[in-house]
Each structure stands twice: as C-alpha cells, then as structure tokens.
Hints:
Blueprint (H helix, E strand, L loop, with lengths): L5 E7 L16 E2 L2 E2 H10 L4 E8 L17 E5 L4 H13 L7 E4 L9 H14 L3 E6 L5 E3 L5 E4 L6 E10 H13 L7 H7 L5 E4 L10 H11 L8
Parallel strand pairs: 1-4, 1-6, 4-5, 7-11
Antiparallel strand pairs: 2-3, 6-10, 7-10, 8-9
Amino acid sequence: xxxxxxxxxxxxxxxxxxxxxxxxxxxxxxxxxxxxxxxxxxxxxxxxxxxxxxxxxxxxxxxxxxxxxxxxxxxxxxxxxxxxxxxxxxxxxxxxxxxxxxxxxxxxxxxxxxxxxxxxxxxxxxxxxxxxxxxxxxxxxxxxxxxxxxxxxxxxxxxxxxxxxxxxxxxxxxxxxxxxxxxxxxxxxxxxxxxxxxxxxxxxxxxxxxxxxxxxxxxxxxxxxxxxxxxxxxxx
Length: 236
C-alpha cells in the first residue's frame, strides 16, 4: 500500500532556555545556517511532503529573515505556550488544506541532522502498514533508575528501551483529536506519540540514526555541526 499525502509540522515557538543563549535555540547558527533552516530543509528534501507548517512564537522576529520561508511549501502559524499547543495550531491549519486521512510528520526544530534515508524509511514503513510510527533509537547503554537522593533503585531492561526521535508520523485527523483530548485533560505532553498512546492508537518504532540528535545543551551544537559538515560519514 503506497503512502497517502504527507504534510509536515515543525513547532518552533520555544525560547530554548537550557541553551543559555541570547537567541531562541532554533535560530543558532551552525554549518552555515540556523538549526531551524537545517531541520526544515531536511523535510523539504522529500518530494512526499506537500507542505510544511511552522508554528512560531507570536513575537518572533527572526523567521521572516530566513530564505527557507520563501519556499512556497512553507507556511507559518502562531504557536502556543506548550509544544502540544503549537502542534495543534499547525494541525488546525492543515485540516483546512488536506483531509483527516492524510499523514502528518511532526519534526523538532532542533533536530537538524535528519537523514534523507531515515525520513524515507519512516514514510515507507508507516504508509505501507497504515500504522503511525516514530523514528527511534534502541538504547545500548546500561540504564539505572534512581531515587530522589541519587541512589540506584534498579537496573532497567535496556532490550525494551528506545529513545524517541522525530519525525513522528500519524494520521492528521487522529493526531489532532488525540492532542485535543490530552489538552482537555490538562496534560502537557513532550511528544506526539504520547498523545496517540493515551488515545489508544498503536505506535510503531522505526529505527533511526544516532546522528538525528536533538540540540538541547551547548555541547550538542558541536556534535551537530560535525555531522552537518560531513563528520561520521552517512551511516553513523
């Protein structure tokens, strides 16, 4: 079964306080462009993406200066206080362009190293099976659970643990409904898969690459720049 029409959403209304920078982290420059530009271009590289909706802070002064926003496939909406609010705003805009049965891929603004082959694999697996899914990386380290005093409570079974990445790909209408239900319950979720899980939808894990890191702390910038400049080849 071939994938249906696909749309993209990038929530970019945050201020990135953990980066200790003067700019919101999505506008930090690495490898000749901002994090946001790299992340958007990674999605736009796929011909499967009909259009992208970027959710921005209402006082954003930076996006209009970026050449990528001149692309006809890129649209802007005003985001919200929480990530889920921004995604909901973007999904609402897409519902006026597409159909509830269309697919939508939600990608972090600060994941600039998404590889074309990982994106293609996600679209193929999800579209082919009809089951929503996310890029993810299997945990290979030994993982400890700690108590409030920093003492080990137990060692977790890492064979069942995965690090969630983005994009996360689901039916447009189902994701919109799931996020709306979570919002009505007062839940602030950190990814879209959590909303789909709570709504009872199956979520499949599609293996991704370690290089698809999320830039969160200052040290992450150097590693992301290294990847973008060709470090580690293409299969790391």
